[in-house]
Fold this protein.
Amino acid sequence: MNDVESLADWIALACLLTGAFLCLTAGVGLLRFPDVLSRMHAGTKPQVMGVLLIMVGGAIRLSGWSATWMLLLVAVFQLITAPVNAHMVSRIAYRRGHVGRDSLFVDELGVAPRGAEVTAGEEGRRGDQPADAPIGDETEPQVDEDDGAGDQAVDEPAREPRG
Amino acid sequence: MTVIDSPVRRLRLRLPLIVWLVLIWNLLWGTWSWANLITGLLVALTVTVVLPLPAVTGGGRLHPVAALYFLGHFLVNLIVSSAQVAWQTLRPSGIRQSAVLLVQLRTDSDLLLSVIAQTLTLVPGSMVMDLDRRRMTLGVHVLDVGDEADVERQRADVLATERRVVRAFGSAADIARLDQEPPRGHAAAPATTEPTR
């Protein structure tokens, strides 16, 4: 074995090990982070970089271009799909109220003037909801209060302690 | 104005997708040959005719130097952000609070907004949660925020990413819009609307 080959092997080794380590930290992040939104950070960044490094290591180590092209495709699609996946999951989690509200420093989406969906999200400021809770659950109490009281003045003190 | 549905224009709008599909087909086979090219072309045409997607209109143009700058920046950011999140998962103190920001963008193009959102999820700190196409606002989740300065730094980062993407792929009008005032100032909006609730 000549020097060039062993150098390439060492680089491939470093890439594979670093990539595997990053994927491991993605898994650790899923366990250690407090809520869905933070976990999606762990599931995208170290995860994507880990897969990319493993692909690079594989491309160096495997001989033949045919495998390299396949690895390139895997890398490209990982880059394209992982953010979309994180976006969809976190968006649904946020709108369903699976957010530890006390772990948020600011929440500009909740107080901003927006459509009906986000108003429902703001009413759900009580922390995590069970996954099988009905969607209307967060808005229903407010509607009941409005029906019973009939005007704004009674409604307001009732909402004070929550805010 | 030209006729919108002329076949030539339709084909021109569909061309990038066809080229992309042929490329994937060839990469999947692993070898380049005329047979692969022709069968790939047939498959791509079949796919685009049988399963048509809405055409991406208002697609920008490529500025090579700015695109290289963006790509380099993106790769460095990807490495930094994965190292950063990896450290945050492993360090004993864990993470501090996070934040949800509403950032007013200045870009009004489907294609550019998609690229911006994809990029933001992979650069340090931020992850796109929500995109309001009409108002051109992004809901961004930021990991590990300590104080107000962190929040503002992240907001500036988002706008800088937008600027790099638009400089690289935007049309002249998109680039010009970067330096104009945003249509609605969202920074002040929550404070004025909250008491009425």
